[in-house]
């Protein structure tokens, strides 16, 4: 590698801004002091002095923590620490057009992993009422759609309901976020492929089958996705 | 509900800052204009004019996007859109002390779901070398640790290696983030409970068993966690 290449490598380094550093220091500070949700943060003046930074830089860092849902401004009480919305920032960046290909593939596999793993919690929490609702969804989808976007709509409806049935709101929201990525990758297929086990088959397994029979059904339902995974 | 209560309800509403709004508008703008990683953003002057905001507010919003890894500042080229680090902000907020209890429980279950679902990808990607490495880890853990923190260290080593074996870096990183939460909840148990299937049993299943036998083994390994899940 010549000096020319080295020069290019050096140019690639991005700037680390003051806000990056102050944000990190603030996060460390909050952890070290064992701040808990509801606790009031020190005043801006005290923070700028402790961190040795300007008010503008501090505000930039605080703004980031506000974005993460880690701090809130309350009337009269000022800034307090709050329980962060852990999926909020993930939602902001979940855009198939800007995420790199390797990560898109990872997310695709992550969703398959969740589908295969949720039988355990589903069998603990499923209710008769939920299964009836799922059946209604599956029956309304009886005709196999030829258009890819309809097929994805069906997937969202059906699998979304299954996630809801787990009673796990974080998982449900996470899956909703993963679907555009999934749809983006599946949309690239020319011919829609339907698994050997249909949505209505899955409902019947959920009604009468064991946890493991349901899981085997789900595997067959997703088989064409698994077949495409690279070693 | 009297006026008194209503008054309190109104106080609970947090301020929505200008930066919140400008950040949202910027995200929308980038999507609408189909910006792709590598594309240069318009100059600050143009953005402040288009959005009708002050330079300070714009900078605050841009700082947030920089935090999400969505924009980078490059020498000579200025700000360019980049592929976001999708787990970066999740990492910042994954702190068991500030996350609310319902979400902690959700994350606990999410990790169990991943463990149960990863057999499929693991069986596509596992190599002899990886299994040997996993076996080394399991053998070095032969004595059951009585102290909880040692037990968690073993869990991290062993299960972390399994995630690495899936070849899915996002999933691996995600699991690393979930572990402090898992550890936090498990730490509250007084007596460490060991599943009927040990780490070394899992290695042997991975060597000689089918995907489904491995999964059943994993289920038994995690059985005491599943038993505690509420209907």
Automatic annotation (TrEMBL), chains A, B:
PROSITE patterns in alphabetical order:
HTH_GNTR
The UniProt keyword set, sorted, is:
DNA-binding, Transcription, Transcription regulation
Q: Does the keyword Transport apply?
A: no
Cited InterPro entries? GntR_C, TF_FadR/GntR_C, Tscrpt_reg_HTH_GntR, WH-like_DNA-bd_sf, WH_DNA-bd_sf
Q: Which Pfam families match?
A: FCD, GntR
Looking up SUPFAM superfamilies in the UniProt record yields: GntR ligand-binding domain-like, Winged helix' DNA-binding domain
Q: Does the keyword Iron belong to this entry? A: no
Looking at the record, the residues that make up the HTH gntR-type domain are 16-84
**CDD domains in the record:** WHTH_GntR
Q: Which GO terms describe its molecular function?
A: DNA binding; DNA-binding transcription factor activity
Query: Protein name, please?
Result: DNA-binding transcriptional regulator, FadR family
């Amino acid at each position: 590698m010549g000096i020319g290449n080295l020069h290019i490598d050096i140019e690639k380094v991005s700037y680390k801004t003051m806000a990056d550093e102050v944000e990190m220091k603030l996060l460390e500070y909050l952890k070290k002091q064992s701040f808990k949700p509801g606790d009031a943060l020190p005043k801006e003046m005290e923070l700028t002095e402790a961190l040795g930074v300007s008010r503008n830089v501090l505000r930039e860092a605080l703004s980031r923590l506000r974005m993460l849902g880690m701090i809130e401004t309350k009337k009269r009480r000022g800034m307090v620490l709050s329980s962060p919305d852990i999926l909020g920032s993930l939602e902001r960046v979940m855009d198939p057009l800007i995420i790199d290909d390797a990560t898109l593939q990872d997310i695709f596999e992550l969703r398959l992993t969740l589908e295969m793993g949720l039988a355990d919690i589903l069998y603990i929490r499923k209710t008769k009422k939920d299964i009836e609702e799922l059946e209604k969804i599956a029956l309304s989808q009886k005709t196999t759609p030829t258009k890819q976007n309809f097929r994805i709509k069906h997937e969202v409806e059906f699998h979304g309901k299954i996630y809801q049935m787990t009673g796990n709101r974080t998982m449900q929201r996470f899956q909703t976020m993963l679907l555009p990525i999934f749809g983006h990758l599946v949309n690239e297929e020319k011919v829609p492929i339907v698994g050997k086990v249909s949505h209505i088959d899955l409902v019947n397994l959920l009604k009468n089958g064991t946890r493991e029979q349901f899981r085997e059904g789900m595997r067959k339902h997703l088989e064409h996705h698994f077949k495409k995974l690279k070693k």
